[in-house]
Amino acid sequence: MKFTERLKNIGPAAIVTGAFIGPGTITTTTISGIKYKYNLLWVVLFATISLYILMEMAGRVGIISGKSITEIITKYTRNKYLKLCLKILISSTLISVAFGFEAGNITGASVGLGDLFGINQFVASIILGICILYVTYVGTAQTVEKFMSIIVGIMGIIFAITMFWVKPNFTEVAQGMIPSSINLESSGEAIALIGTILIGINLLMQTITNGEKWKSNEDLKYSKIDSFINVSVGGLIATALIVTSGSILYGYSEGVVQSPIIYSQMLEPILGKYARQVGNIGLIAAGFSSAVATPLILKTVLSRMMKWDINDWKSKLLSTLGVVFGILFSAFGKKPIQIIVFASALSGISLPVLTICILISANIKQEMGRYKNTRIQNILGIVVVLLTTLLAINTLINFISFIKQ
């Protein structure tokens, strides 16, 4: 396959990468670098591999079956009450995660835009909001995937440049890639890193976009290449963020991280004002890409599950409300910590259920035929299910502790 042909077929997976590389990921990876330097890089590597396993599986299901994960699971679930519970879980997760993350995405992007051009957050939020609403209203998965491919590429270049710019000790970086034991103190950060990369609703989107773009089993190779490239870039970005913050701020109190803007601010004393501007561009790209992807995922997955047309007024209304919600939070300087915590908790708790749904779907012979999971793929899938279950338990414990405060 020619290199140009491979590039032409890159697309759907960029939506997933664009969605998870947002202000939340920047904040989480920055804190990890500050507290543990490069010691948790192997966790990012492990989470990135897990994401690829799930995305390959989800993409294969979409192409071979022509159905979404939710359509397959509800089709083969006999118990009507269990079917109803699954629909409620998925729809409530979709809506709350989309609204909560959108508030964080627009806030992060507006902070970067405001710092770059010296404008207040209200104005920055309105400018970004109008752009996001336009893309949300007129955009389709096909048009957005091309846009996302460009944005993800820009983010990869920016964050990689800043990583090399700070001149880290690459021997220590390599050592950080080697799995080591996690103590009780660092376990929370390790789980947070996994949670910021593995987001269940993104995987549901992967099935739909792959099924719409590719129709033949001959296209599976394109899906695998697309997933591999985009997941690798996402992993590189997360790695670069940890290496950069670990090189500059390791040993500082994590309390310095009040906002994702700390990423661009921390570059200035070491590398000058231009580095801060580069960091701001990266922050804007991360926030904007996630802010565009999130409402698209909401309306695409929900409309497929509820059997609405993608252009139905109900689909567009929900996605528009999500963006407006984020604009209002950002414009009036609100810190959407409570709703983001709730959205993150629901996302983490529902992830094992969605992962199991993907694993089951990939093993249904009536849908997958000879392309159903192999034994090795099932073993890898079970490992990921166990990982996401650990994440869910930790998320639930942290959420209970948070609401008790």
From TrEMBL:
Keyword Transmembrane helix: yes
Parts of the chain that traverse the membrane: 12-34, 40-63, 84-101, 121-140, 147-166, 186-208, 228-250, 278-297, 317-333, 339-360, 380-403
InterPro entries in the record: NRAMP_fam (IPR001046)
GO molecular function: cadmium ion transmembrane transporter activity; manganese ion transmembrane transporter activity
One GO term (biological process): iron ion transmembrane transport
Tagged with keyword Nucleotidyltransferase: no
Cellular component aspect of the GO annotation: plasma membrane
Membrane topology recorded in Swiss-Prot or TrEMBL: Multi-pass membrane protein
Subcellular location: Membrane
UniProt KW keywords: Membrane, Transmembrane, Transmembrane helix, Transport
Name of the protein this chain belongs to: Divalent metal cation transporter
UniProt source species: Dolosigranulum savutiense
